[in-house]
Specification:
It holds the Pfam family Amidohydro_2. This is Amidohydrolase. Keywords: Lyase. It comes from Candidatus Pullichristensenella excrementigallinarum. GO terms for molecular function: carboxy-lyase activity; hydrolase activity. The protein has about 290 residues and is an alpha/beta fold. It contains 13 helices and 11 strands. The protein has helices spanning about 20-30, 40-50, 60-65, 70-80, 100-105, 120, 130-140, 165-170, 190-195, 215-225, 225-235, 250-260, 265-280; strands spanning about 5, 55, 60, 65-70, 85, 90, 115, 145, 180, 200-205, 240. A 6-stranded parallel sheet has the order 6-7-8-9-10-11. The longest helix is centred in the last third of the chain and has 16 residues, at about 265-280. The protein is globular and about 45 Å long.
């Protein structure tokens, strides 16, 4: 099974009801050439590209930008999609009701995890006000995906999302599964070092490649870090991701296959690691 661990559903008709909202998201999130899409068409495209299931990552930028995807709507999309998606929740940490939103998403909606974007939501991951949110995630055994590293989005400040800033969370909450999206680009080695140290930390390959997925993967996994780091060291903690709709999966899957990794490593990255991150399968590699 191939799992896309980093998929943004912000332009699904079900979650982007008007052209005005679509235009706002294009401008605020730097998806300038993207338009609204039917959810089932999006599922079909993913399958054509070789992807079986996706983790949906919504956003909540309500305090500063007035835009968010309601977690209940994410749940409805997951149910409508007949097994094609896992749905994460999101919350703007600056909302006064942030904790209640997260608890409702886990307890009542049964969503699979939480997505946060420190660079866009303007918070430092190790701020004291964030720890009750992490405690809720650990209480409900739900993982967190953080945007990490550079972001294309206007107003997103990379300093908030530098990988090293997530270390205090991993150390304080050893049972909380944490993923640093985009391998923390451009701080690839920093991300890899954290994964090597903390078995509860993960990352994904939803990198910012420009016109060649293979060249960018080659840079990340053979130049920014040594080839052996991925194939022998952190292979249980890296998940395949596309950052769709910014990029689709076909070229990324091919690029991963071209790196010369052991087949077992490739299969872990394509699917098994995501299942363990989600809590769908038992983590056995530590035993």
């Amino acid at each position: 099974m191939v799992i896309d661990a980093h998929y943004h559903p912000m332009f699904f008709y079900d979650l982007c009801e008007t052209e005005e909202l679509c235009q706002l998201r294009k401008e605020q999130q730097a998806y300038y050439k993207t338009g609204r899409v039917d959810m089932f068409r999006a599922i079909e495209i993913s399958k054509i590209h070789g992807i079986d299931k996706c983790i949906l990552l919504p956003h909540d930028y309500s305090v500063e930008y007035g835009d968010f995807i309601d977690n209940a709507k994410v749940k409805a999309v997951v149910e409508k999609a007949n097994g094609a998606f896992w749905g994460f929740a999101s919350v703007d940490p600056s909302r006064s009701d942030a904790l209640a939103i997260v608890e409702h998403a886990f307890r009542d909606l049964g969503l699979s995890g939480l997505k946060l974007h420190p660079a866009k939501q303007h918070f430092h991951p190790q701020e004291e006000r964030m720890f009750p949110i992490y405690e809720l995630c650990q209480k409900y055994n739900k993982p967190i995906i953080f945007h990490a590293g550079l972001s294309w989005q206007p107003g997103a400040i990379s300093e908030y999302a530098r990988p090293i800033h997530f270390e205090p969370i991993a150390a304080t909450f050893p049972n909380l599964r944490i993923s640093l999206a985009h391998m923390g680009f451009p701080w690839i080695a920093e991300t890899a070092a954290l994964l090597a140290k903390y078995p509860n930390m993960y990352a994904d390959t939803a990198a910012m490649y420009f016109d060649s997925a293979y060249e960018f993967y080659q840079y990340m996994f053979t130049k920014a870090i040594d080839y052996t780091w991925l194939d022998r060291g952190i292979r249980h903690q890296v998940m395949f991701g596309t950052n769709n709709p910014r990029w689709h999966g076909k070229r990324a899957i091919k690029a991963l296959d071209m790196l010369g990794l052991r087949e077992e490593t490739v299969q872990l990255i394509k699917g098994r690691n995501a299942l363990e991150f989600l809590g769908e399968e038992e983590i056995t590699w530590l035993s």
